[in-house]
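Predict the assembly for these three chains.
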Amino acid sequence: MGLTVLIMVMMACAAVGTASISFRAALEGPGEQATVNPDYEILVNVRLPRILLACLVGAALACSGVVFQALLRNPLADPYILGISSGAGLGAMIAVVAGFSWTLWGRSPIAVFAFIGASGTVWLVWFVGRLTGRFHVTGLLLAGVVVNAFFSAVIMFITSIARADKVYDTIFWLMGYMTAEDFLTLWIGAGFVLSGILALFFIAPQLNALSLGPDNAVSMGVNVKKTRLIAFLVASAITAIAVSLSGLIGFVGLVVPHAVRLVFGPDHRQLLPLSAIVGAIFLIATDTLARVVIAPTELPVGVVTAIVGGPVFLVLLVKYSRQVGWMK
Amino acid sequence: MSGIIEVDNLSFAYTADREILKNISFRVDAGTFLAIAGPNGAGKSTLLNLLCGLLAPDSGTIKVDSMPVGSYSNEALAEKFAVVRQEPVPAFGFSVIEMVLMARTRYFGSMGFESRQDRQAVNEALEATDTAQFAARPLSSLSGGERQRVFIARALAQSSSILLLDEPTSFLDFKHQVAIYDLLKAAQLEKNKTIVTVTHDINLASQYCDQILLLGADGSYYTGNTRTVLSADRIRKVFDVEIFEGKIGQERFFIPLGKSTRERGQSDNKNSQSPHL
Amino acid sequence: MNRWWWLTIGFVCWMAIGFAAFGGRESRVDSESAQTAGRAGRIVSLAPSLTEILFALGLDEEIVGVTLFSDYPPAAAKKPKVGSFWKPNIEAVVAARPDLVITLGFAQHRSLADRLERIGYNCLTVDVEKVSDLFRVIVEIGAASGTQGRAEDLAGGIKNKLQALSDLIGTEEKVRVLWIVQRQPLRVAGRDTFVNEMIELAGGENAIGTTIHKYPPIGAEQIIASRAEVIIEPAMGQEDLNLQRRQAFKYWSKFGNLPAVGNDRICVISGDTVSRLGPRLYDGAETIARCLRPHLFED
């Protein structure tokens, strides 16, 4: 566990290092309070919030991916598998197209609606999946697929009848972006994400047991129902928050858990915190790339996570696959 | 922790028209090794699931240490029963020691860490099942027999008073079959665990188990001491197959006879030992 | 579970601290005072149309940042870039140390303006959707940048020229126009667009009736039913207009029934003056008028 602390320090360094990589070479001078000093403004009011946001979202998505993979006992699961992506997308699209301009405590309507969309979809999927009675993984997955398909169709429908520029707005949102949010938003988001990750850490041993199947877990004294409920709720919540803050960033939730599992093993007590950290680092790094690669245009972060993440994952796979049983 | 099981007038049916278990009663004392045997579909696995509380009886009671199974909380029940089921290899590559450690989940501290006691229990279990040398290896790299021993180690590490096993040796070779039963017998004798195993192997049951429960497909059952319950007649009746009973010293063995064997026996009358027909 | 209680308590405390410390939106800028300030020395414009307005107001020296594809006037293309129209780069904007940032009103720009204001920069957000917006916005920008006089002159000038055009057209019957935005799939400009307003200023009317979309895709039936007398296609990019004319002709020849096709009234015009709503509004309207009533302009 000392390893964890070490890596946290690394993360902090990565955060600082990121700033100086950027295309603005003339950087330093924090400490100046005046509005006149753009370097300070950029560092503190633009870069730092963005890095913190990337940190949060990366950690949230990675942990959520870990949990959904455990919950559904499926290594292909990612945080969006149960329809969160299309639900959030639909929410965002409705907000944009309907042209809402009011804000909730200053948070943009897109974020709010995306959150509502994401959470609502999760409940819908849970409800549909449980129509079979008991908790059944396949049922839940199928419900997710169906809901995803349905909402995607609705999104396409709205796309076809909406104004071009509104559609464009949504597309950007859907591709995932990082913005410099204000500190209150960051603080609240951090509150949710950190407590969420901590809650998931509390049930990490139970998640381990759950991967053996519910019957075995029950025999070992684990409260499967409670574990599943907490896991599902918390993972969905932090995903919904991540998505409402930064759009749909793919790949992080699928690949980071795998990468960490390949290198450090499947024990969730390690997997969760490490995935959070690795997810954070990954997203900070890719976001920096997204900003810098073809400045001043910014690439959507989701694009960079896939382009960078893909090869990295392949390398890990080749290097470590012999050690892992399920790759045989 | 004693581990006494009392089943009284237990009935269960999955669907209304087919009753699997009809008014079954038996008692297992602490530290007994019970075998549950019977033809396919007689309800052996069902009975196991009923015992450990996964299924609820339609009528009748199952009591463990004088309290009904249903009245135990999940955690308390885990102190009574440890179950070894037929298991596929799990999707995520846990190592042997991580697997066995999972049995101690309910004892973990608030931050999810194991205590020295837990580690001790795990080590003892690994020693007892002779799997300590595999501790760091992923489960999927072991052979079937080795894997089964790991699952039993996990059940042992749970420190429960009763061990339930569902056909623990069905896919294993002779050597491993015997090894498993030796292991179980040791657990019974050294740790005074009550052991209930569903098995297809009458002979191993006859060798190792003190008590046997023969479940018939028609709802009939016989229970009691292995020596008294097991006889060629009874086995023939329950399994609906011809049986050859033999004896080596004190141990009896039972061999099912198919058509071809019988015919060969009839046409070949020069055998010194004529089969019981 | 003890630790769950701790977690909940911790969570609540965290939120309380957050609201206490950061709650309440403070905008460091008083936007009222910003608009009556003197001439703004450094201006960033986040839309090509706004850039055009700024240049038209004589503020070329003051402009320190524009978006990509700000191509008119040619001097605009040489200005430092601060990102694209859809996603302006906030760092580049801040690095330009603007006294005034002018943005449009859609979601991305609005949230960017929000953030800039929170950091402490002056922002002016305007909506330029209709012709009437244009005149108002020119004046607003004039006010914000200390060039009220020039702004009013500019706006007035455009209005006068449009009035002259209208007088020239007089009471001639309106010409039915089909305005092609895109050929594959076929999309036209609907009635709820600034293009439509330009068409009307030029003495035409949209051959398409009211539609839900601003730029609806339409099918062959509707094309025929429109009985368009003139088809106008703004040209793509800088390619040879003649080439595009020939292509357009070939494409439309299958709609022989349309009056526009029958009378050979397919106009491919340069897209510059009609693609954005800006100070060249009159030029755009005149170009269209030339298409609709060439006889009026034979001079």
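The two ends of chain C are 91 Å apart (CA to CA). DSSP finds twelve helices and nine strands in chain C.
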